[in-house]
TrEMBL record, chain A:
<dbReference type="Pfam" id="PF13416">
    <property type="entry name" value="SBP_bac_8"/>
</dbReference>
<comment type="similarity">
    <text>Belongs to the bacterial solute-binding protein 1 family.</text>
</comment>
<feature type="region of interest" description="Disordered">
    <location>
        <begin position="30"/>
        <end position="55"/>
    </location>
</feature>
<feature type="compositionally biased region" description="Polar residues">
    <location>
        <begin position="38"/>
        <end position="51"/>
    </location>
</feature>
<dbReference type="InterPro" id="IPR050490">
    <property type="entry name" value="Bact_solute-bd_prot1"/>
</dbReference>
<protein>
    <submittedName>
        <fullName>Carbohydrate ABC transporter substrate-binding protein (CUT1 family)</fullName>
    </submittedName>
</protein>
<dbReference type="InterPro" id="IPR006059">
    <property type="entry name" value="SBP"/>
</dbReference>
Automatic annotation (TrEMBL), chain B:
<feature type="transmembrane region" description="Helical">
    <location>
        <begin position="77"/>
        <end position="96"/>
    </location>
</feature>
<dbReference type="Pfam" id="PF00528">
    <property type="entry name" value="BPD_transp_1"/>
</dbReference>
<dbReference type="InterPro" id="IPR000515">
    <property type="entry name" value="MetI-like"/>
</dbReference>
<feature type="transmembrane region" description="Helical">
    <location>
        <begin position="108"/>
        <end position="127"/>
    </location>
</feature>
<feature type="transmembrane region" description="Helical">
    <location>
        <begin position="239"/>
        <end position="260"/>
    </location>
</feature>
<feature type="transmembrane region" description="Helical">
    <location>
        <begin position="181"/>
        <end position="203"/>
    </location>
</feature>
<keyword id="KW-1133">Transmembrane helix</keyword>
TrEMBL record, chain C:
<keyword id="KW-0813">Transport</keyword>
<protein>
    <submittedName>
        <fullName>Multiple sugar transport system permease protein</fullName>
    </submittedName>
</protein>
<dbReference type="Pfam" id="PF00528">
    <property type="entry name" value="BPD_transp_1"/>
</dbReference>
<keyword id="KW-1003">Cell membrane</keyword>
<dbReference type="InterPro" id="IPR035906">
    <property type="entry name" value="MetI-like_sf"/>
</dbReference>
<feature type="transmembrane region" description="Helical">
    <location>
        <begin position="273"/>
        <end position="296"/>
    </location>
</feature>
<keyword id="KW-0472">Membrane</keyword>
Amino acid sequence: MRKKFAAKMTALAMSGLLAVSALAGCGNSGDPKGTTAAPGTQSGSQGETKGQTGGDEEVTLNFYAWLDEEGIFTKLAEAYKKDHPNVTINMNFVASADYETKLITAFSGGADIDCFAVASPPSLASYVAKNQVYELDELISSTKTDISGSQATIDATKIDGKIYSLPYKTSSWFVVYNKDVFDAAGVPYPDGDWTWEEYAEIAGKLTQGEGADKVYGSLNFQPTSMWWRVPANTKGAINPLEEDQLDAWLDAAEFCKKLSDDGYQPPYADRAGEAGADYTGAFLTGKYGMMYNGDWVIEMLNSAIADGEKCNYDIAPIPHWEGEKPMTVGAPATLQVAKNAKNPEAAFDFISFCTGAEGAKILLENDYFPAWTSDAIVKEYCEGKTAPEHIEYVVNQTNSSQVPCDPNYNTASNVVKEEVSLLLLGEQDRETTKKTITDRLASEVAQ
Amino acid sequence: MKKKQVASRALIIFLLVLVAFIMIMPFIWMVLGSVKMKSELFAVPLKWLPETPVWKNYTDVFEKVPFLQFYWNTAKVAVLATLGQVVTCALSAYAFSKLEFRGRDVLFMFYLATMMIPGQVTMVPQYELMNHLNLLNNHWTLILLRWFSPFGVFLLRQFFISIPDSLVEAARIDGAREVKIFTTVICPLAKPAFATLTTLTFLNAWNEFMGPLIFLNEKSKFTLQMGIRYFQQMFGTEYTLIMASTTMSLIPILLIYMLAQKYFIEGIAASGIKG
Amino acid sequence: MDAAVQVKVKRRKLNSYKKAQRNTAILFLIPNFLGFLIFIVYPVLKSLYISFFNWDGLGNAEFIGIQNYVRLFQDSTFRISFWNNIHYTLVTVPLSIFLGILIALLMNTKIKGIQVFRVIYFLPQITSMVAIGIVWTTVLANYGPVNQFLMTFGMENPPQWLSSTQWALISVEIVSIWRSMGYNAVILLAGLQGINAELYEAAKIDGAGVFKRFTKVTIPMLSPTIFLCLVMQMIGSFQVFDTIMAMTQGGPGRATNVLTYYIYQRAFVDWRFGYASAVAYVLFAIILVFTLIQFIGQRKWVNY
């Protein structure tokens, strides 16, 4: 009993709230396994030096993220440990395709999890709905943590008005185009304001040749992602559980299908069966004029070019629909403290470091576009890249959330993905697709 | 007669080659793909050979992933899992095939029944159990889960059954104890079965994916299959690196199999099972 | 000694003999059985228990009796997965065993260099399904080597193997057979090697030809091993997962969705662990029925 109390007090002290030197030496509770007792623990006495967790009590944090992020979080953790030598961070990285499986199993099986990353707001919403996420408002105000740099994203990921997560990076969509293909067709490069109709028209002009030598104006990609919905996203339709938004999604699917039917884009079937997952590989063949894609593709193309591939590319803003305002979409990736974290204060301190100004600097150095932005960061991001020429489009488009904070989104989008794939293959018409989707959503989405 | 023999021999060789071609074609594609540029792999029209072999794909794998460590981890798990499984399952299989006791067949059916529950739903309870036993992030989890495999029991029981009961009875009449019958009568006769179970268990353990994914946390403990997964990332799959790493994961096991099949199958054929 | 006493003694002897056998059996069983109880049986029973709950995997469990079981029969995806799975089983199991026997026979011939073939035939089994499945998707791509091959032989519109509902399931089945026939062949080869050569000699002396020796000696002697393959393949075919995960993820549409993939999605996408467990137990019942049929049927053809 006393130990538990001590644990609580120590934890509070560590967050710089209380300086309770009387408790010094009492607890080793920061360590989830309770094995290592820090000699001469003076919790709280250093609380003021950093204004954050400053205690030298041994703390172990179990952190989960997916493999793509291994490099960046390893660096963030190293930087964090420089100022917090008492903190050990156990990094758990899982391949992205298996990440949720592992995380859910770990939560269900009662593993020690202190903080974790998720790739998009619907996953965040799922974990919040399942009561696995620590609510942060109180900690933010009590530690006076500065969140101004990513305020907009934080507001967009609030659930029931409460903050459950801090974003560390955002993404944004734009059009990548192959300059050589434009030159060969004598078409001027896209630059600035354009519509999806114009995109289709230009795709038509770029399309040349027949058979094996055919050059397509537009490239589509793998059926496991839902790239085809992006045109709908650009007019704010992000949740297929809303009927009008579902209609917009189906419009977008038909837009993509028409590009293929007109011969401006490979048939959907050609990209099916996982072969389409290697869109950079396809783009690098030089047989595609344009593709819409996100900021991650820049790093992929640049490193392929560094490895000897040839590709003369640039980027343009994402198109918009006639009569709509230009707007791109993106999804923030966020960090959370687990509800059952042994030491939520310490976990919070770590994630606020990663998502704050200091973390942003490290993210930037590693080619990430941090969620924490400022004019200086935007400038540095753009100046840090040799290609593409118009890198500024990554950051200066109006950006809106691509996915809703809806715990049922993942289930719903799976249903939509399955049915729309039949539409795109030409095996199912729009009427049937919509009806099947509506029926399935009614029966398969948990009420 | 002679002509007929030649013809049937020719037919057999033709079939052997045909089947071999079907079996090996994807592997040739994979090995060639592992030295291609990204843009060559899905080139239309298709290219079988890369313009210049990109050996860099292999060094890239080692750069991005501690592949040697993964080899070692996988080998350790596979060897220990196989040894334990063969021993415990052989003992059980002997009881199920050559000893009489009440409820034998019911118990055996129970073993079989547990194989019919898909792993997707036992995964969470298993994880919970391992958490309680403090075995998470530990290779022993993977090893222990294989030791008690109902499959091993089933496989060996089927083989033991085909060994004539009369041999066992004869030994019993001679006054041999069951342990001795097991080690001196059954085990030598069941060499092909042991060879089979060893090979299959080793392969399954080597190639296992879900278990390591769920139970292991630290990179230093990961196995090969998780290493291959490194190249299937959120924003795209690196097929050339997947092919390179898969090829590398295959080489040691291929060598082992080549040695093993010579030792096992031929050894069995030579020593014969006539006894 | 009178007759009654004799019978008594005999019975006592028999009883003590039985007892001794039982005790030995326990000793032989115990190492495996203890671990089996803890690591296999406990999780299996726990999932049965879960199947009666509405459980999201994270604490909030609500007992709902057999509602999960009732609900699944109203789910169109369950029905589709079920029929896909039956199709998959009926195609892959007989073919992979039939071809496995043929390959085992080929491997059992005494031809120079047979070792090379033995290694090649086993190659598909050596590789992990996850990895080789990815390779197969590139092999079966619309402009991949298979279609290239078909086109050089004059086929103008080769099948869209993985991207049409018509072919996707068949493609997955082909890959499964490709992989499992080698596996069966290895098990069956061990069985073949175990057949006493004297039996063949005897049959030869009796004037049996090649075919007759095959049906009268090989098949009966091999039948316990064939039975093993049959049961294992069938259980495996109802639990096919890696192939689907690596190659199609159930698509296009729901054309290759099978029961375990359905279970996986319900558990790890929808977080409906109770429901997923209920589906697993329905799957269990299906497999059990098929297995029992085989166990009853085996008396007719398996030679012990």
